[in-house]
Amino acid sequence: MRRYGKNPDEDDIRVRPNRKGNRPRTSIRPKHEDACEGMVLTVDRGRLTCLVEDRVILAMKARELGRKAAVVGDRVWLVGDLSGAKDTLARIVRIGERSSVLRRTADDDDPYERVVVANADQLAIVTALADPEPRPRLIDRCLVAAYDGGLDPLLVLTKSDLAPPDGLLERYGALGVPYVVTTRDEFVDGVAAERVREHLTGRTTAFVGHSGVGKTTLVNALVPVDRRRTTGHVNAVTGRGRHTTTSALALPLADPQGGWVIDTPGVRSFGLNHVDPSRVIHAFPDLEPGTAECPRACSHDEPDCALDAWVADGHADPARLHSLRRLLATRERHEGD
Ligand SMILES: Nc1nc2c(ncn2[C@@H]2O[C@H](COP(=O)(O)OP(=O)(O)OP(=O)(O)O)[C@@H](O)[C@H]2O)c(=O)[nH]1
Ligand SMILES: [Zn+2]
């Protein structure tokens, strides 16, 4: 289903995540042979800051792209003045095929899904163990967004100096989601950043978490000031004193191993109207064969779903089906999500 134009680079064309990390190739021939490849670092009211080689360039989308939006993490091709000098504005003429999409439906009364981040291979879900209290349904909804978009989830449980992680870890045990637990002291001595960084090397990780969970503390610890110069430049270009929370922001991890941290604005809710259960079940390869006998377009969360009988026959761990069902059930929004 395509909504806009005929460009095969559309948002809603899905590609499975590429585990080897090599970028997928686009099959179409570029119209602008001389265009240079770059990556979108942040978006601010129609102005996109892009990294081209080692230069930060301000750009806008070319008219020919139509309604298709470029988002943080997108690979783009640019033409025009690519010097990065003050008061220059390049044009984005092509957006590369995406290896993953983190998307959300803004609100229940807003049916349009929005891609928040493109090409991330991991979603770090930052949750405080206390102050504010963890919101397991929100975590579940983030997990659904990750599985739906083709990102591997990572749980980052902060403030373990205030409360233990046991309850949450038990809840997510059957899902096998990797996790890191951090405390305040570990932020001071750098151990927390080191432990989280082990999961980030060579990957592009989008960080989500609602206000107050310690996401800023964590991102600042991960990307030291000198690595954030790129952003400083971005802000000089866009005229913003500091990063405001309207767009995600890509920050480079230290070389030589590389990797990117993509900070996203505090997520208060994660609309999931767009989620396709068949994409979520891809994240459960142990259960997927059991869906062969399901009715057409089964949500896998309905009485006729074949998974119940299949799991009862001993083909898979019932705790896994229980977790899948719990996640699928979060597609319906409740008060407080
Ligand atoms: N006790 C404790 N407090 C922490 C820890 N990490 C961060 N904090 C505190 O939690 C508060 C919120 O931290 P931030 O890093 O600003 O949280 P945030 O998620 O970025 O929140 P917003 O900026 O509102 O989006 C600050 O007062 C931090 O000092 C921790 O491990 N333990
Ligand atoms: Zn089913």
From TrEMBL:
GO terms for biological process: ribosomal small subunit biogenesis. It is found in: Cytoplasm. Its main location: cytoplasm. GTP binds at T158, K159, S160, D161, G209, H210, S211, G212, V213, G214, K215, T216, T217. Pfam families: RsgA_GTPase (PF03193). Its cofactor is Zn(2+). One of its GO terms (cellular component) is cytoplasm. Residues 16-29 have a biased composition (Basic residues). Zn(2+) binds at C294, C298, H300, C305. Binds 1 zinc ion per subunit. GO terms for molecular function: GTP binding; GTPase activity; metal ion binding; rRNA binding. Coiled coil: none annotated. One of several proteins that assist in the late maturation steps of the functional core of the 30S ribosomal subunit. Helps release RbfA from mature subunits. May play a role in the assembly of ribosomal proteins into the subunit. Circularly permuted GTPase that catalyzes slow GTP hydrolysis, GTPase activity is stimulated by the 30S ribosomal subunit. This is Small ribosomal subunit biogenesis GTPase RsgA. It comes from Streptomyces clavuligerus. The gene is engC.
